Records
---
Amino acid sequence: MTAMLDPPAARGPYGRADLQRLLAPRSVALVGASANPASLGGRTLANLASFPGPLYPVNERHAELAGRRCYPSVAALPEAPDLVVLAVPAAAVAGVAAQAAARGAGALVVLASGYAETGEAAGQAAQAALAELARTRGLRVVGPNCVGLASRPAGLHAAFAEFSPSVLAAGRRIGLVSQSGALGMGLSHAAEHGLSISHVLTCGNSCDVDVADCVAWLAEDPDCDAIALAFEGLADAGRLAQAARLAAQHGKPIAACKLGQSAAGRAAAAFHSACPTGTPADWQALCADGGIVPVTRIEALMDTAAFLAKAQRLHAAGAQTPLAADVPAPPAADVPAPPVPAPPVTVPGLAVLSGSGGTGILAVDAAERHGLATPQPAEATVACLRALLPPFGAPRNPCDLTAQVSRDPASLLGCAEALLADPCFGALLLPWGRAQPLALLASLDALAARYRKPLLLAWMSQRLDGPGLAAISALLHTALFRSLDDACAALAASGLRGALSTREMPGA
Amino acid sequence: MTAMLDPPAARGPYGRADLQRLLAPRSVALVGASANPASLGGRTLANLASFPGPLYPVNERHAELAGRRCYPSVAALPEAPDLVVLAVPAAAVAGVAAQAAARGAGALVVLASGYAETGEAAGQAAQAALAELARTRGLRVVGPNCVGLASRPAGLHAAFAEFSPSVLAAGRRIGLVSQSGALGMGLSHAAEHGLSISHVLTCGNSCDVDVADCVAWLAEDPDCDAIALAFEGLADAGRLAQAARLAAQHGKPIAACKLGQSAAGRAAAAFHSACPTGTPADWQALCADGGIVPVTRIEALMDTAAFLAKAQRLHAAGAQTPLAADVPAPPAADVPAPPVPAPPVTVPGLAVLSGSGGTGILAVDAAERHGLATPQPAEATVACLRALLPPFGAPRNPCDLTAQVSRDPASLLGCAEALLADPCFGALLLPWGRAQPLALLASLDALAARYRKPLLLAWMSQRLDGPGLAAISALLHTALFRSLDDACAALAASGLRGALSTREMPGA
């Protein structure tokens, strides 16, 4: 289907000024606002209710909706709205869009389906007309064929999808960008077990604003610390590379899951968003170029982004090992390039500390699957561990505290510190299966900060939203995963990869 | 450490009669019962409180505990107890075990650590003495270094670990066997989101009863439909092969996660349960020999076992495609071998049906990662899908219902039936992101039964224990996974693997 669309003229990502009226609007109009709470217009109206600025429902059949004055048309609005959300059928979109442009609107969100994703000429032409309107009138258009977007800093939930509420906790706020709306909605539910989600931006067919533009916005947004990205294809892959470099310059790591990595997936994408998907090699190159951390399993995307946000804090505080976002700015042409630093002589590995021998073994098995070294600690560390462990514990890597951990949390902290203090190790993974006192968690988190090495907790209970998980998510330096493999994959794919790779271990 | 232990004499798995007093006891004594609810003895006493038969706390410092008469010693008990649980320090175990044998006990569960897992001669000798007691006195011993066991049919929770309660729903009851106690506890929490768990049997150092014996018990237990197994090593791998064949004969599929697959993991196992771990090739051979479905990610073990229990029902009802448990009995020597059946001409693939284009693409990406074919449907099926879908839906594989699915669940059922009726497909995977009416779930489940093809739902929301999940788990023929990759891995590793492999697709 894709071949039938003309590629748009190359442009860089939209800047802050371009997207201000879309993503930080002062006023919003909803065309197709409805009294039926099950309809798209009704659901979107309910979601928009908390918008702090003027909200204008538009529907010629109502004088009032949800306690607000309702307007018969966009033309009749009392001011030029920053953002107009179109919850109308595809056949009515072009007319409303033209009215909105004439009324001076700054941006449109088009929810309707029936455009390029149909693979039919009429839908493609209608989408091309929307793109042309965006280009000629300087309007920003999100969609068509999308579920909308939300920005918690802006108090904006301009979507018919149910995005979960989130606490905005500085240092770990994830901006989520998803081409697929349903996927974005499901991923946003990570907020319910404690992740801090600042934005949910879905793009659908991306006739104008695409995921690259959203990434660029988040790169410069002071209310976002890391970016989670899921997308199928791009009209212009170079634009995403530019946006990713912008994010790196602002210290915002990106975790990204690329849909359509298989032949069957690429074929399906042509029927869905109709954007060019590129090859797996294209994707690898883009990740390498932009410092993007690739995530294979979509289920791991949000936890990986949260990990990167926390690891970035350690890095910003002066950690020795580079992280994903540490892409150096290219030197100016008239400045001599700095000398290439020598590779480190000793290379830190991954330490594992558990209260169960079985989960410790599983952790090092997972580390090996993802190419992470799990070396043995230095002799002084072993002595320190031995002093803290019961006689049947294992003063090695993986370190097995045995069930003693439940009676003596201090031994857990002591062993964690011994392992973190050992230059052998660059990160500590703790298989974790039960709620623990907040004071213990805070002490562990403080160790991560002191030694500037990331702590990863892997939740080993099938009580997946169980007690204590939100408290772990809320930590500033300790990341939570619900899978050992996901934790190891994230660590391996992050900028710590080189430092922790088995392939670079001396003698390994 | 392992080399220092003499290998025990080869024996087959224990039979029903051997394990009756251990796993279906009429009476239980707890030595080391305690009034301190945080101690091992106190926690085990609380867990045993629901045992329906006589329960005898033993502690010379108390006349009564938890409202029950407390006895000063095993010798003083009013009857020979079937099962004696030893919640005493390692130093006291040998004396209590000898007393229990003298009093005519049938079985011991030894919780204490400090045995072969220490790698030290004293612990190894103490463990060997327990094994010798088991052998010479005909006592069955579980442990040492274990958290205990639970059988819901027997009303027995003889463990200091917190195993979750479970509804026992016929047709999908999972018996869980774990060498590691902490791991068994965490896995058992799957009951909290609706899985039906009949047994949690942990073995620890396995000086006598090991995971093979537990698998053999479950193979013949009418209250268990499938077995989930996690273990590190075995004194005698042949015994597990025998137990697995017994399970196959009884139509009980086994999903198994083998700990210690990496070099680091094998080294750690030597410090933990001190059983020989074998090589990855040993494990593959054992799976092939015993019809065991291997599971790489521990987090997927329980959902995979639940899937196999449900798939087994379809198979027992007469499905065309073989499943894991369908291991033919070896022909008797005097009967000529049946002719080898010709390979099938057409090979069924995996169909994907979603309400979101993005999740459908992710599903076929995951299928390809696990070697599953996702062919296009027959022309008649396409016509049927087209009639049910909106113009912007995708009448193909993956089939995209679009957001229409939330307004018109009947179209979901129609498309599911069209795909299941197509001989092209052997299974149907549905990415799933929200609670649905019970009637819709029941109708879907009935389709799986009618077409005798498994349905797999992959939960795409990060609300991991969210509303509606227990209702899906409770279905008889539809399996729930919390990951597309886990669903595809389970299908690929099950007995359907051959039938669904891309490598056998004509023209693929």
---
Amino acid sequence: MSSITLLGAGNLATHLAISLHQAGHTITQVFSKTKKSAQLLSNRLNCPYTTDLKSILPSDIAIIAVNDDAIKEVEKHIFFPKIHTSGSTSIDCLNGKNTGVLYPIQSFSKNKTVDLSETPICIEANNDMFLQQIETLARSLSTYVLPLESQQRGHLHLSAVMACNFSTLMYVLAEEICSKHAIPFDLLHPLIEETAKKVVDMNPSTALTGPAKRGDDSVMKQHAHLLESDQEKKQIYQLLSRSIAKRNL
Amino acid sequence: MSSITLLGAGNLATHLAISLHQAGHTITQVFSKTKKSAQLLSNRLNCPYTTDLKSILPSDIAIIAVNDDAIKEVEKHIFFPKIHTSGSTSIDCLNGKNTGVLYPIQSFSKNKTVDLSETPICIEANNDMFLQQIETLARSLSTYVLPLESQQRGHLHLSAVMACNFSTLMYVLAEEICSKHAIPFDLLHPLIEETAKKVVDMNPSTALTGPAKRGDDSVMKQHAHLLESDQEKKQIYQLLSRSIAKRNL
């Protein structure tokens, strides 16, 4: 079991800290520049907190789970082994003898608990010994741990943005249309759940269905007509339909 | 229980027929212009089939579950109560004393069974008596049945295309990126499942996360750079990121 200094108190930091705590690790201290967040999380973990980077307590490992653009500023103050948790930030962003990355591939929200044991975690380190240490830590949280270099992790993070944020935008657009026409959005809930299941059970391109896939021009024209008063949605509809049709050749 | 003539033998027709059969209705006959499909489905239902529209056997109700553009051609040959199952086709497409619609909001694939009992079904009819009859039929299949007029159904179908087909395209794009960079796509499976769960548990706009939502320009620039050699994905990335950012104002 390790002693861990946690930097950050946002969604990812909170989920990670609680899972680490439950796995038997000791959180030595929580840092957040926002006092309220630091207090809240340290209360849950029964450990001290600080809002001052100059008062960071040393431990076996520091986990830097702050916003990407704050990593450099934070890491400068840490003089013991440290890892960050960012999908899109290179390991080179960290300086020191033992540096690494632990990137859980999941979307974390404030009021929704996520089971980290089923969350894949990508790891990286600047030396083999430290990679082993990070792997042990990651395996105490999840059954699916994979070493991945920074460059590949960047592409994985981009894929995750498409698979998660952009698909959520599609649901937002659908919800806006339903709401405008007084249609209960929950009519789409089983379709949304089934779509995700299908993509996981089959592969995504096999799961593609619908007018663009079938080349059904009359339905696509009808949809474009329905979107006449919403040029943004129309543009998205047409670009994505062309993209589906292209993959059908 | 009703006797039903089924027109069509595709994915939707097959799922519907089997659920109707299991619910205790009698499938009088299956029609498909493709002999193989007609034979296959009629074997599963233990009922006769035809490929000839002039040999349609009458029953309590005809369910027209053919491609949208074939509905008009098929319905001309039916001289008893009839309904179609299309999301994007008006009820006016059908002629006769008793006409209606039964639209299950789900995506059906060949080799994947879907539980219709949890699938919302929208219904419509050209008269109240027939609406009641369709409602009884729909309620024998699903617990969630909602009367919806053709115009609203058109908007619902458009929403379903966005929520299902377009989100699947996002998974396809993610899979293409992973595949190109030798990253196992199953790393994204838990994220995909969690995203769908979040949209259903919260509402979609609350579930939005990621660089465009946070206004993280440096990550978005980095992603655009990674997509430099794939102009189509770059265009989609930028259009959808702008759309997310717009909703964040």
